[in-house]
Design goal:
The complex is a heterodimer of chains A (about 525) and B (about 200). Chain A is mostly helical. Helices cover about 65% and strands about 5% of the residues of chain A. In chain A, the strands form three sheets. Chain A has a two-stranded antiparallel ribbon with strand order 1-2. In chain A, helix 10 (about 195-235) packs parallel to helix 16. The two termini of chain A are about 55 Å apart. In chain B, helix 1 (about 15-25) packs across helix 3 (about 55-75), helix 2 packs across helix 7 (about 145-155) and helix 5 runs antiparallel to helix 6. The longest helix of chain B has 23 residues, at about 25-50. The radius of gyration of chain B is 19 Å and the shape is elongated. Mean pLDDT of chain B is about 75; it is low at about 1-5, about 100-110 and about 120-125.
Chain lengths: ~525, ~200
């Protein structure tokens, strides 16, 4: 027994008295024993204390063994376990088959959704034509969203809702914005001051948010329908859907899918740390090191081979999941849309959307330092909360499933396959936190500006690009789980920034260049 | 050697048995694992959750069956299946304790008391009464302290083994035991009935 060590484990413990107990138990080293013996010889009171401890220990030793634990499981349990063990193979195969069917259906949904999103998204992002916007409105089939849009109509100067009245105004705004964005030649941009770049990026961010909010329902309605159809194919009833969600989790483990990480994180009761391990040495050694220090670890390795390792305190299962190699060659920033993940209080978010309540100052400040953007954000950002871009369609059921894990009862509703806004309301009714927030941005820089602003102000925020979306999801699910339990989300900003730098260092550097004054 | 299992499983390591089960779903290999570890797991689980130990250990082995493939694929030299199972069962027990936090932990003590009283039926009434007071006091201890006391003074485990089973350091086990004994010594009932 080391007194200092004992004290460090329990500040309230009297280390010497603890050593006295260990002395009576014969559990000290020779040196420690001699030390205690010397103290006992000097202090009769201490000797009396020892006598009492010894007497109690002897009593315990005499009484407690009278009831020994059964050495074996009951025969019925043993048989049951072996029967289950024998059936695992068939069960796994069946699950894999169903899993394959489900994901095949979702893959088909993705393809169709991607095509649909190309049809809708690119006209919106490229020319902002009123015709395209009208198409968006036509496609916007969600009555709740439309109701929310209508509610916000009167008060919002940047409102989009009524297309007939707003087309001219929008056209003008788009012209101004487009000029700000695209008008300046490349040479002019290179000569701009940092402040001007920030202003440009801010404008771009504003446009992105507005576009995201405006296009939300329409942009995602078709893919949502397709995805629902895909889910319906695999899960013909709400209960089956619920079962399918559970099977995804099991099958994900069986197939070493990264989805398992999200589930593990969401159900993790004792998460305590996120660790980033430098990209040197073996993954095994790094994992062991992290495991010895933390009950729960998410390890993000370097670029050549990425791993997520989750040690679940609940299961103690070590899921070492190999992600696809994410080398510089395979990452094409043009193909990805940044995702921003954080634990959002859905009650609040829904209030913003459906009750037109002002966004809390903290959020508004984070998302939009300029009053101009606050005006937009206060009305529209919540709509973006449930947006998952077309390229991220696969993540929708996972995100929802993670939310279901958090609440246990949501999946039985059968309507939460996808986090559309009316589902958001249902989640909110149960006080659920959405795990992930994705804000599709018109450009990389705009998205990064938003992301870095958030990272600067909030700890529980992880920023990632699509190849790391599973990491994002795992982290956000973890954060949400902690948030739900009222526990502090102890993620150091430095860690987040390290993750950010590791994940997309070039973009981070670009944003830093934009936001920070040049060093003399 | 199991009568239906021509191979002497005792010469297989845990890792080999696991690989055998994971690759061929060899139930006898799984049975060998179960036989090898159930005693230790039951002892540890009972120290934490009393009569819920059977549930906890069952869950541990079912989990092993479900995750055997993944576990086997990640198996490394020197890995300990016993430690893995121990952690699964321990965490299950801690989950149970957390969920039942509102429920008096004395439920555990009560069920233990009944069995203890039964075992002591041959003893004198006074002795049984004293023992009940002691069991009650032990049952009132915080879960980890209670587990440490039971593993030490009921099962005779060393500090090192207790530390391994509870996933704590040896020093922390010392602190747990010290605090537990302090609580027991300060128990008025115990002082009056058992430690006059």
């Amino acid at each position: 027994m080391n007194a200092d060590d004992a004290n460090s484990k329990s500040p309230t413990a009297d280390s010497f008295a603890a050593q006295l107990t260990a002395y009576a138990d014969g559990a000290l080293t020779e040196d420690e024993r001699k030390k205690i013996a010397a103290a006992l010889a000097r202090d009769p009171a201490l000797q009396q204390e020892l006598d009492e401890i010894t007497r109690l220990q002897n009593t315990l030793r005499a009484v407690l063994p009278q009831r020994q634990t059964p050495e074996r499981l009951t025969p019925q349990r043993g048989d049951f376990i072996l029967q289950q063990a024998a059936n695992v193979k068939n069960s796994s195969a069946k699950k894999r088959l169903r899993f394959s069917l489900l994901w095949s259906s979702l893959a088909a949904g993705i393809a169709a959704g991607f095509i649909a999103s190309l049809t809708i998204y690119y006209p919106l992002s490229s020319d902002y034509s009123p015709t395209a916007e009208a198409d968006v409105a036509t496609l916007s089939a969600d009555p709740v969203t439309e109701q929310a849009l209508a509610k916000n109509e009167a008060a919002n100067q940047l409102e989009i809702g009524d297309k007939k009245h707003d087309e001219n105004r929008d056209d003008k705004r788009h012209e101004i914005t487009a000029q700000a964005f695209h008008g300046a030649p490349a040479s002019a941009v290179s000569e701009s001051t940092t402040q001007e770049l920030i202003a440009k990026a801010t404008t771009e961010a504003e446009q992105s948010l507005g576009q995201s909010a405006r296009g939300f329902s329409a942009e995602h309605a078709p893919e949502a329908k397709l995805a629902r159809k895909a889910s319906a194919t695999a899960a013909p009833s709400p209960m089956a859907a619920s079962a399918a969600v559970a099977e995804i989790a099991d099958a994900a483990v069986a197939t070493e899918s990264t989805a398992a990480v999200a589930f593990g994180a969401a159900s993790e009761p004792n998460a305590s740390a996120i660790v980033e391990i430098p990209d040197n040495g073996s993954a095994r050694g790094q994992f062991s090191a992290a495991r010895s220090q933390h009950q729960f670890s998410i390890i993000i390795e370097g670029n050549q081979s990425s791993f997520i390792a989750v040690q679940s305190q609940r299961t103690s299962a070590v899921n070492l999941v190999g992600l696809p190699t994410t080398t510089a060659e395979t990452i094409n920033p043009q193909h990805f849309i940044n995702a921003m993940a954080s634990a959002w209080n859905m009650d609040e978010a829904t209030d913003f959307v459906f009750n037109a309540a002002p966004i809390p100052p903290a959020y508004a400040e984070i998302l939009a330092p300029s009053t101009h953007i606050i005006a937009l954000v206060s009305k529209r950002v919540p709509l973006a909360v449930s947006v998952v871009s077309a390229q991220q369609l696969m993540l929708k059921p996972i995100i929802n499933s993670a939310a279901s894990v958090l609440t246990d009862d949501i999946s039985t509703q059968g309507t939460t396959t996808h986090a559309l806004d009316k589902d958001v309301a249902q989640h909110a009714a149960r006080g659920v936190f959405l795990c992930a927030v994705s804000i599709p941005a018109a450009s990389q820089s705009a998205s990064d500006v938003i992301s870095v602003r958030v990272a600067d102000r909030l700890h529980p925020v992880i920023i990632s690009q699509q190849p790391q979306d599973n990491i994002t999801l795992a982290l956000s699910a973890w954060l949400a789980a902690r948030h739900l339990r009222g526990e502090p989300v102890a993620v150091e900003r430095a860690t987040i920034m390290q993750v950010l730098e590791r994940i997309h260092a070039p973009q981070a550097q670009m944003v830093r260049d934009m936001l920070l004054p040049p060093t003399p | 050697v199991h009568p239906d299992f021509p191979v002497d499983t005792s010469r297989f390591s845990d890792g080999q048995l696991l690989q055998r089960y994971a690759s061929a779903r060899d139930v006898e290999a799984f049975r060998a694992i179960l036989e090898r570890h159930q005693n230790d797991l039951l002892r540890m689980a009972s120290a934490l959750v009393g009569d819920g130990a059977q549930d906890a250990v069952q869950e541990g082995f079912l989990r092993l069956a479900r995750e055997a493939t993944v576990l086997a694929s990640q198996w490394r030299e020197g890995a300990s299946l016993g430690a893995w199972l121990c952690t699964v069962v321990r965490n299950y027990c801690l989950d149970v304790l957390r969920k039942k936090q509102a429920v008096r932990i004395n439920e555990v003590a009560e069920s233990t008391l009944k069995a203890a009283a039964l075992a002591e039926s041959a003893d004198s009434a006074d002795s049984a009464g004293n023992h009940q007071v002691l069991w009650q006091a032990v049952g009132d201890l915080p879960p980890l302290e209670r587990a440490a006391v039971l593993l030490r003074y009921r099962d005779g485990l060393s500090y090192e083994m207790i530390a391994e089973q509870l996933d704590k350091t040896v020093n922390y086990v010392g602190v747990l035991l010290h605090q537990a004994l302090q609580r027991l010594r300060s128990s008025a009932a115990l002082r009056a009935e058992v430690l006059p």
